[in-house]
Design brief:
Blueprint: H1 5-8, H2 13-22, H3 24-27, H4 32-43, E1 53-57, H5 63-71, E2 76-81, H6 84-90, E3 98-101, E4 114-120, H7 129-139, E5 140-151, H8 157-166, H9 178-186, E6 191-204, H10 207-217, H11 233-244, E7 252-264
Parallel strand pairs: 1-2, 1-4, 2-3, 4-5
Antiparallel strand pairs: 5-7, 6-7
Helix pairs in contact: 2-6, 8-11
Amino acid sequence: MSASTASSGLPDKRQVAASFSRAAASYDAVAELQRAVGNALADRLPSDLSPARWLDLGCGTGYFSRALASRFPAADGMAMDIAEGMLRHARPQGGAGAFVAGDAECLPLRDASVELIFSSLALQWCDDFTAVLSEASRVLRPGGVLTFSSLCSGTLQELRDSWQAVDGFAHVNRFRSHEAYRQLCATSGLNVVSLDVQPQVLYFAELRQLTTELKALGAHNLNPGRPGGLTGRARIRALIDAYEQFRTPAGLPATYQVIYGVMRKEQ
């Protein structure tokens, strides 16, 4: 883990790994956003891509490892995640030739060993995105592709603003800005094929459904310095009242700012 984690405002990766490990059994039932984003990312894969070896980085329960195996049946696939609990859940379902515990900032792979790195909604938890891109460049073969989706600042802004009205504490995970991603990608040494942000909005009948889903996904508040202890009834009532101001005919919105990147290593 990067020593700068505490100052960056991003969560401690050990806590991220533990949280997602605990959520492995409940994750798939509430992963509507994750499926939609991963499918949109898969749609962005270059049409001429035919990898001999691919890596699903931050594979979670292995849903997209299985999709990659179907798309590239002749390829050798590897699924990797920092959360051991996710790997234990994914392994029996197949889809990859190997399931490996690993960190995107320090990949346990040889230089120039894969043609495709696919990573959907995992890299937002990495403090050192420069290291992520450097490692991707190292392990990709010439002409290889890194394709990723991640979350930007502005994600769950409705929830953030509602909590701000209640107590001012950081109850919602922080993510880097679109511009920060753009600058880091531009200076990575990889060729940026495309980089775009698309908001995804989910709707809930009640706030409790959103907070329950975040917990089931393992993506509830992991901020350093987050308030501890139980949340009192009065504060929850105030939070519900604040969030109700965002209600639409479709329900309570929860907006995710999703960035999609496709990058290629020079031949």
